[in-house]
Amino acid sequence: MRITNHGKINGWVSFALDHLQKHEDRPLVLHTLPASKGKARASVQDAVAEEKTSKGLHPSMATIPRLVSVVEIIKREYLKTMDPALAEAGSLSGLHQYNEVGDLADAGAENAEEGRLESLARALQGRNHVQQKKMAFMRVTLSRKPLPALAASGATYQSPAVRRLSKTARARLKNRARKAASS
Questions:
Q1: Residue 16: count of CB within 10 angstroms of its CB
Q2: Which long-range contacts (C-beta less than 8 Å, at least 24 apart) are formed by 51-60?
Q3: What does pTM read for this prediction?
Q4: Are strands 162-164 and 91-93 parallel, antiparallel or unpaired?
């Protein structure tokens, strides 16, 4: 799911919760990568020119704080909407989170090495600043089960939050289980 500047957070959260309830085995991936418009786009440079605002950061970088907010809301609401009957040993477990941060380099520049060396030489002479043509992005994967392959590929891992059930809630669960066993 792509997070943008103009989307509704409520819509993303409800879609995510619905996805996580319906598809237990499939993780949910939220990201700020630029939209791909088919194979017609020649390079990342075209994406930068197309989506860059007149001032400030590229949208894929500017939406990273929004992505973090959406992920935290999803995790909190997921714990609230879980059925207490699923609780084991008096606690409810949340979502496993894997974070990846990276950048998309300018793939369309010809003679990139020569251009980079020339820019570096000019910067060292103090004449011009080196112009960077990279876009940062963030990708967050939420899943109900651990994904060791994703952690091995370099993503940072955040363990699930655990919601403890109160003493009375645990007693109610035990009573329900007794009634269900006697029926």
A1: 22
A2: 58/34, 58/135, 58/136, 59/4, 59/5, 59/32, 59/34, 60/32, 60/33, 60/34, 60/104, 60/135, 60/136, 60/137
A3: 0.67
A4: antiparallel
> 53 Cβ partners below 8 Å, 6+ apart?
59, 62
Amino acid at 134: K
Q: CA nearest 24: which of 103, 129, 105, 96?
A: 96
- What is the amino acid identity at position 73? I
Other beta carbons within 10 angstroms of residue 87's beta carbon come to 17
Along the 183 residues of the chain, how does pLDDT read in single tens digits? Answer: 999 888 899 999 999 999 998 998 899 999 988 877 654 444 444 444 444 444 567 777 888 999 999 999 999 888 877 755 555 555 567 899 999 998 876 444 445 566 677 777 777 777 666 556 677 889 999 998 899 898 888 899 998 887 777 788 778 878 888 888 887
